[in-house]
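Hi Y.,

Following your request, here is the sequence exactly as I used it, all 308 residues.
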Amino acid sequence: MRTHYDNLQIPRDADEQTIRQAYRRLSKQYHPDLNPSEDASRIMQLINRAYAVLSDPEQRAEHDRWIQQQEAPRPQIPQQPSFRPHTAAQAHAQAQRQPEKPIQPSPKTAAAKPARKKLWQPIFIIACCALVALFFWQLNHHLQTQAAEEAAQTTPLETASTPLTNEMQPENTATPTVAPTPTLANEAAPSNYVRPSTAPNGEPFPSTSGYVKNYPYTRSTTKQLTIFVDNIRNTSDVFAELHQANAPQPLRTFFIEERSQLPLTALEAGSYTIRYVQLDTGETVTSETIALSDSQKEATVYLQRAKE
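Below is the corresponding structure, written out as tokens. Let me know if you'd prefer a different format.
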């Protein structure tokens, strides 16, 4: 039996910091942008799912209860003891005690023997019923959890089909005049909206969290500083840009699935911000300023909805 703790390579009593450190370490090792292996994408999905469950106290408690149920001992069938002489003297004494003529068992004794022989049958039937009930309980629990996750994903807004800012459009391309769509943080998205499959430049979104093709991509050749863009606690996919602080031109453009993380590596020292669109509501948010330096080589920014 393999658990989410095994996928993150941590003990079952690991604290939140240990879980986060294990996730970052495995993300650097198996993220498709950093690992050319064919299995990197599949392994990264398992790592993301394990971190999403173990970082949420309720989901982690439910996972621990499932582990206890799987490891619970199964009912054992009792065995009937039998007496055998241990020595030749005991065997001889037992033979001497036997009567010359066999004693016919009484009707009650004769009826009790078949009953003892059939004692294992109801126990076996009860054990089988318990296993079948446990299987259907697990199946029903899995279906309810999957339905709850699908219901938690709100329907995205068509704002994802338009760029975050004018600077996100490809250079030397005229910007069409589009009537602004009013969007507030507390407005509900239209129920018939479906997130478009392509980015504003017409390229398809990556199948997993990653960079969008044909957008600027600035990479340092001398520094290896990293920003972890954490979308773990967000229930929406996001379309985002990395900017230097107060600079209009994006350095990188990327897509992050809900409850996932993307490391932005090979960055120079400086101050940065993340501008992103919540694809389920069209809400545009700018993160706090992130500072990187030779002494602060890594930083994490948590994406979330704008406060009302």
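The mean pLDDT is 79.

Thanks again,
Q.
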